Fold these 4 entries.
Entry 1:
Amino acid sequence: MKILFLLFPLILLLAQGAAGEREEGKWGNCWKQRGFCTRRICPRGTSFAGRCSPGLACCKR
């Protein structure tokens, strides 16, 4: 039972690290281009720069 108290923080740290990698991998390219992610269509006054994920477009001003 005491081992659960040691494993729980370790699992939380691993989950937090995995979330950071995902964010950098998909959205990092858009942010490096100084763009932003939006749903499907870029707003007026912006241009399409790529894809953040299957349902999100990367737009630049």
Note: Residues 18-24 have pLDDT under 50 and may be disordered.
Entry 2:
Amino acid sequence: MSDADPRARASDAREDRVEGTLLGGACGDALGVPYELGSAPLAAGEVPRMIGGGLGPYAPGEWSDDTQMAVVIARAAAEHGLRTVDALDAVVTGWVDWLASGASDVGTQTRQVLGEVAADVDGARAAERARLASYALHAQTGRTAGNGSLMRTAPVALALLDDPAALGEQARAISGLTHADPLAGDACVLWCHAIRRAVLDGDVPDLAEHVVELPHARRDQWAGWIADAERRTPSAFAPNGYVVTALQAAWSAICHPLGDGPLVVASLSAAVHAGDDTDTVAAIAGSLLGAAHGASALSAEWLDAVHGWPGLRADDLRDLARRVADRGDPAAVDLQVSDELDEVAEHLVSRGLGEGHHFVVHGRPVRGGRSSEYIGLRVLDDGSYRVWYSGDRGTPRTYVETPDWAVARQRFVDEVELLGASRGDWKAPRRHRWKRR
């Protein structure tokens, strides 16, 4: 046996897990469709089947909006990656087209946000307009923590397998295109990091280990929710339209498989037996199970039957998943940060201001997670600089977009220092002004 054989086997196994991420979510979705909100009876201990029906005229094996929206993200990721404004615009315009042509059983919140984007005849800056609509809805209602962004988040993990620093940021950003509540973003960050580790390691990770990727203020709360899911069975978390209980139900199903069959089948059976939003809980659980165990662990009967908008079947999802993972930039973003951004970040650190706590420079990894409020700095696609404020509530507020680095740098430093001083955890020395070293 040649030395290359073990490497080839490892590569094949990883590819199987990449394919399993999309296929597992789709199979869970189609398995849960018939039983949503009690649409079909399911006896205690009964293994669910892809019999179609549910809340729409679904054919046996047909997936719902959970996978439909994930496919849109995956297509944009395969074409553009998920790092740029153009990529996020492609995601939103893809969703708008889907809403007009093939959407089924669309969540009220998602429909409202995308409807506002569709009503604007100017197709430019679609992601920005979606985010504005999403945050406006959150400001108006305070209730935007549905499970509709978590159900579709798996392709984000595939697009950024080699870049954990960017993964959390983009998972939260794509969640916020329709679901502005910080808890929805937290859930997407947690699940994407878990999927990434599952694909890379070939096993279901300890979800609680990933709370370090969340803002400090909410880590203990999420750790408690995860521990609760590990103690109780999935039905304890119904109703599960709320993003926290949806994640808990999915994680509980993985921790408490139902029956003596193959592990993936038993865990997805448990997810459907959670009741209520059965297709979404099973889609969420299926994406992580597929990432950990691979497409080869899914039932052949399921793979033969699963299909859906826009005319895709299992082999199409295999191909799409591979293209998303292949398109992901293998070089981590922190290796691409320009010298001037590195320099200003190190300057602030040397002055006692916390990276991830007071400020974030896009592309530099944040060790131990981010605050819920910070000042951001990034280079835009056209080479200009953006300085903005990000907080838990409301649209991220841009302070300045300029091609002049000196202007951007000074505004960034000033705003970071103001934030640090306002929190009372940092005191500015006298007569400070930025000096290049």
Note: The chain has a mean pLDDT of 90.
Entry 3:
Amino acid sequence: MTITQLLECDTLTDVAARIRSHVVDMCAGPEGGHLGGALSCVDVLTALYFSVLDVDTHWPDDPDRDRFLLSKGHAAVALYATLAERGFFPVEELAGFGRAGSRLMGHPVRAVPGVELPTGSLGHGLALGCGFALANRYAGRASRTFVLLGDGELQEGSVWEAAIAAASLRLDRLVAVVDRNGLQLTGPTDAIAPMEPLAERWRSFGWAVREVDGHDPELLADLLDAAAWEPGKPSVLIARTVKGQGLPFLAGRASSHYVTLSPRNHARAISALRVAEALG
């Protein structure tokens, strides 16, 4: 099924709403999940998988495919929900997340169709993305590589080593997205390790930079599809987001980082998402 067929009656916002509902359901399971950081990146994943990435659900290992790496691998529930909605595996499988015998583990694993590599040891994804981009260049492929990083992850020095390498190698088929929700497990990112002016920091490392509302999937899709923005430079999109987006009782709170939703809070969350979808 093509993207056009998938979106025949839906907008990207409609798809994102369904993905958020799946995330909430998974985080109401016995193991819970990284709810806040998953909800903050749903619109980015929706834009990528339903508008930008050249991937084939029937041939996930097509050598000419675009690559996507979820460097902030703890947001796996958002990736699983997106892959299921896109058709890589049945949506019904999401109900088994984190349970014995399920391949849907707390961090992405290669056993899941559409997952390129196990990720979640923070700071590694961008370097891996450099490797994919360089390999594609040597193979003569036009494929692009996209890497989604958390803003707390930018405290890892390996991210900046990879940023230097990408610019030095002129990897303009490499696109990084920073989920700039401003929070990490222990509090505000800027109270722990200030990183502003973040855009200028990336520019100083030789990257082409754009900033965007990270909860506008149509705009995200337009910007990501237009990369590379400057010839010979890797691209980074700083997506300004809200941790726990869509759930008023958790949005913008560090306490949303890892949550096991009680039956009551699960019902509250689903109700909030329905209200938001109705208001459109």
Note: Residues 155 and 193 are 7 Å apart (CA to CA).
Entry 4:
Amino acid sequence: MAGIDKAAIAFSIAIVAVGVGIAFSMGAAQDAAPVVSTPSVATKTVEPKAQADPFADIADKVKQEAPKVEEKMMEKPQEKPVEKTVKVEEKMKMVEEKPKEKAMEKPAGPTTHSVDIPVGTSVPGCEESNACYLPADITINAGDTVNWVNIDSAAHTVTGGSPADGPSGVFDSSLVMASAEYAFTFNDSGSYDYFCMVHPWMVGSVTVN
């Protein structure tokens, strides 16, 4: 009986030793296994850097100089517009006075008056309507000139005087051919009759003031 008890005790001790060994080996295996850690996620947000404004300096300068410009504008005298209005009024007066000055001007100098010798006057008949010279009677100022133009195809004369009394000797064109002209300046006032020596029915007159 004593032998059996000793064998049972020895068997129990062996089982305990085997269990302890197994437990020990499993703990060592767990220690040797690699440790896997879960990756960490970064939650920090990076704020973008603010870009520098290239016109910031110019804008600041404009803001600083704006009050100075306003002060200069307030300091300037506002007299120029008044001067301009005065000048405009003076110009208007000058424009209004010019026509008056022209009205006060002396009459123009000596002028030239034209008298035609019409076509067909070489034949009697123009004397009936006093159209042998056109115009037949003319009034001018002293110093003016009368220019006779022969439009007829025949030659004529412009001779001071009358057919009844003959030439006066004051002026005489002699023969004025077709398309030719004769001019005479009357410096003295008075009444001057004239006629054509070739065709005595042709008469005219010049009155000089």
Note: The mean pLDDT is 76.
